[in-house]
Amino acid sequence: MIRIEHLKKEYPNITPLKDVNTEIRDGDVISVIGPSGTGKSTLLRCINQLEKPTSGRIWMDDIELTAPDCDIVKVRRKMGMVFQSFNLFGHKTVIENIMMAPVDLLGRSKQEAYDEGMRLLRTVGLAQKAFNYPDELSGGQKQRIAIARTLAMDPDIILLDEPTSALDPTMVGEVQAVIRDLAGTGKTMMIVTHEMSFARAICNRIFYMDEGGIYEDGTPEQIFDDPRREKTRRFVRRLKVLELNIQNRDYDFLEMAELISQYCRRNQITSKLENRVQLTFEELVEQLLLRKLGATRIQVIMEYSEKEHDISMVVRFNGPKPDGYPDKDELSIMLLKSTMEALEYSREENQELANQLTFRIKNEKA
Amino acid sequence: MSDKNIGVMTGSSFDAVARDMLPEAKERYYNSMADMITAIKAGKIDAFLADEPVIRYLMADNEELTFIPETFVDYDFAYAFPKNEEGQKLCDEISEYTRRISSDGTLNRILDTWFGRDEENWGASDYEHLPASNGTLTMAVDATTTPFIMLYNGKLTGIEVDIAAGFCEEYGYGLEIKNMSFDAVLPAIQTGKADFVGAGLAITPERAESVLFSEPHYTGGIVLAVLKADAVTETEDEDEEAKGLWDSIRISFEKTFIREQRWRMFLRGLLTTLTITLISIILGSLLGFGVYMLCRNGNRVANGITGVCTWLVQGMPTVVLLMIFYYIIFGKLAIGGVWVAVICFTLIFAAAVFALLKMGVGAVDKGQYEAACALGYSETHTFFRVILPQALPHVMPSYKGEITGLLKATSVVGYIAVQDLTKMGDLVRSRTYEAFFPLIAVGIIYFMLEGLLGFMVNRLSRVLDPKRRKNEDILKGVNADD
User: Fold this and answer.
1) Measured between CB atoms, which of B365, B390, B479 is closest to A111?
2) A74 to chain B: which residues are within 8 Å by CB?
3) Which pick of A196, A240, A255, B341 has the fewest CB atoms within 10 Å?
4) Which residues on neighbouring strands pair with residue A33, listed in sequence order?
5) What span, in angstroms and rounded, lies between the C-alpha atoms of B409 and A80?
6) Which of A320-334, B329-343, B358-372, B411-425 has the highest mean pLDDT?
7) Chain-wide mean pLDDT for chain B?
8) What is the pLDDT of residue B249?
9) CATH assignment of A2-236, among 3.40.50.2300, 3.20.20.140, 3.50.50.60, 3.40.50.300
């Protein structure tokens, strides 16, 4: 239904979309997820040309939307859009908001538009608000009306740009219910959202966007339960990552400690957990790897899962394979044992940092 | 005369005299003789410089007024002409005529009519219906230069009107008289707006450098007008009190509005003011809107031109702009002052409307525009269906303010010989010698006009306010009983 090839969107100081290629099939319900600033909304706005792409081509069925002679105004009538900030027309009543475009643009009679408008209002449960003005409604109500307004044009595809992000948490549910019903009707939809469980419940496809494009495209099961790629995994597990690199033995230990402490503060990690991280770092890196095992280059990757509230670490270092477990009497080992769990060792001979340790930091609950 | 305040009329030759003859006196500048009489009676000035014929005339009306018989400078009064071939020819003709009537006694009869208060013969010359077999002459006058030029029963008349009318009749010219402020009469002949000037002009070397003067028809001089020594203000106060405040208002009212049917002058001024204001509002709104539509899509040429024009129109004092239009841009065109004023105020108002639209449209959320576009509205359709209806209610209060401002700004059109409400108030004051009553009357009329225009704009705002519509209107043509 919609085909996108090499779509690129550049702004003077940022390029949110570098190279997007995808195809949207009829009946697809797609959630677009990803960290902020990765071009999710831009992608949606490029599809209906509210943003002019810098380069690349977009087709809807047989019409090339990016062609210079394309009558985009006509195409948009088949392409609904729901905005984060609702954008209901403030000078019109609810029913007029819904009737206006069909009467003005599709040549419907007022009677037809009114009947259809009232039917749609009933489906979103707001028929009694037909003669109110938008500023008399709550956010959730406004968004339901905005959806009804889009539906009144009977579009082939509906683009929803963060439809619940501007809402009070208590109103998210009512809007999601309307979107869920809509997804059930088989309409092609594309939703930019941050509500992952919602995305999982209604979609048959997920786009995870990162690095200027669609980083991973798959079914909800694949993306949420078995992501193929690292950044997707970090995102769906809501991992916060800190990477530290030690290039030689005379590195600035205090600076590293400060970086860890900033990272912990930013992610609201409890001070108890932070102390364990600092202790682990000091004993493992400083005492064990640098002093005892003679490593000179070390990479530490820390991942904090907001979902599970625990920290896992990957430590890679150079040098030969260590001779089994170091001495058990050593104080460092004692301390490390009190903070680490699920320790695994592996070695990749052909890499510079050949040795790899993965483990979790012990947490209260564990 | 040290430490005395001397009244001097702006733009007259008196200030040079005052500096030469009364070096220690402080000069106070006034715009008309009426203002100076009001000021001397109020004790704001101790004396004022005036032309001897004027004072002679005024003494009949103001018993407490007199003048010191010693003249400072002797002056001859004459008509003025532009320094060109036609001006020279006309000047010669009038000079010849003047010499003849002064020798055959006609001139003296005319002068007696005016100084002798022979009011029955005032305004007798029927200059409006002269057979214009040799073309029509335009005479620029200042109707506050009584008794040379004055308004009597709503008609421009006076010594110089009578002489000019006689001359035109004999030489086969038609005569058109244009009243303007004193500062404007000489520029009027220099720019071709008039053929000659009759405004009680005295011949001075300075003036003679730039204009031609005819044979003088009156010889007077500058004298110092003072209050009579026995004009004790207390007695007058007692009189006033005896008459009562109410009576004095009644008399002022009678003098200002009833006598000589002066209310007609106010009415005429009011209509002129209203005409200029209303036409400028309508044309200015249309022009401002049209220009906004051209500039809306960021067309660089249109925006550049508009920017410069707006900057010029808004950066200049209204009076300067009016004079530039009247004397320079339309100097050689036979276009009436009212229309010059309309063009000028249309431009001023259009600049304001343009800025208001920019502000109003800017205040409409960008999302409204995006939503309409996403539904499939074209750019222009979006503007008229979604943006403009929301922008207009934003700007209506400022629009109302601009209209009030415009109405008040039109009060300077007197500078270009348009007799609007303010100018008519000045003319009436030059006859009644009362500052208070005509000024207050003019003020009240302006308030009423503002009220009227404000009411109209409020009605318009109500029509434009989408939230005041009734449900029946919203659903016109729809059967909603399902």
Assistant:
1) B479
2) 376
3) A255
4) A208
5) 51
6) B358-372
7) 85
8) 81
9) 3.40.50.300
Where are the alpha helices (H) located in A153-202, listed in sequence order?
A: 169-184, 196-202
Give me B333's structure tokens.
Answer: 């065109």
Average pLDDT (B247-269) is 84
For residue A131, the chain B residues in CB contact (below 8 A) are 471, 474
- Whether A104 has its CB under 8 Å from any CB of chain B: the answer is yes
Q: Does residue A298 surpass a pLDDT of 90?
A: no
**Do B377 and A118 lie within an 8 Å CB cutoff?**
no
Confidence of residue A325 (pLDDT cuts 50, 70, 90): low
Q: The complex's ipTM?
A: 0.78
Tell whether A68 lies on the interface with B, counting CB pairs under 8 A. Answer: no
Residue B3 CB coordination number (10 Å): 8
Indicate the class that CATH gives domain B5-73+225-231.
Answer: alpha beta
Q: What is this structure's pTM? A: 0.74
Q: Where are the domains of chain A?
A: 2-236, 239-361
Q: Which residue of A has its CA nearest to B481?
A: A115
> Which residues make beta-bridge pairs with B174?
B136
Assess A151–B contact: CB distance below 8 Å, yes or no: no
Which of A50, A105, A110 has its CB closest to that of B478?
Answer: A110
Q: How far is A182 from chain B (nearest CA, A)?
A: 18
CA nearest to A23, candidates A42, A34, A7, A9 = A7
Are B371 and A110 in contact (CB < 8 Å)?
A: no
- Residue-level pLDDT at B364: 93
- pLDDT digit string, tens, across residues B287-337: 999 999 999 888 889 889 999 999 999 899 999 999 888 888 887 777 888
- Residues in chain B within 8 Å Cβ distance of A91: 386, 389-390, 393, 466-467
- Tell me if the domain spanning A239-361 has CATH number 3.30.565.10: yes
For residue range B43-78, what is the model confidence (pLDDT) as tens digits?
Answer: 888 888 887 887 888 777 777 888 888 777 787 889
What's the CATH superfamily of B263-464? Answer: MetI-like (1.10.3720.10)
DSSP one-letter string for B22-57? -TTSEEEEESSHHHHHHHHHTTS-SEEEEEHHHHHH
Kindly report the nearest CA distance between residue B411 and chain A, in angstroms: 39
> What are the tens digits of pLDDT across the range A19-29?
999 999 999 99
> Is B390–A90 a contact, with Cβ atoms under 8 angstroms apart?
yes
Residue ranges per structural domain of chain B:
5-73+225-231, 79-215, 263-464
B-chain CB neighbours of A93 within 8 Å are 474
Of B375, B389, B482, the CB nearest to A101: B375
Contact A76 B376 (CB under 8 A): yes
**A-chain residues within 8 Å CB-CB of B478?**
110-111, 114
Question: Could you tell me which CATH class the domain B79-215 is placed in?
Answer: alpha beta
DSSP characters over A51-69: S--SEEEEEETTEETTSTT
Q: How far apart, in whole angstroms, are the C-alpha atoms of residue A354 and residue A348? A: 5
B479–A88: do the CB atoms touch at under 8 Å? no
Of B96, B243, B250, the C-alpha closest to B163 is B96
Chain A / chain B CB contacts < 8 angstroms:
83
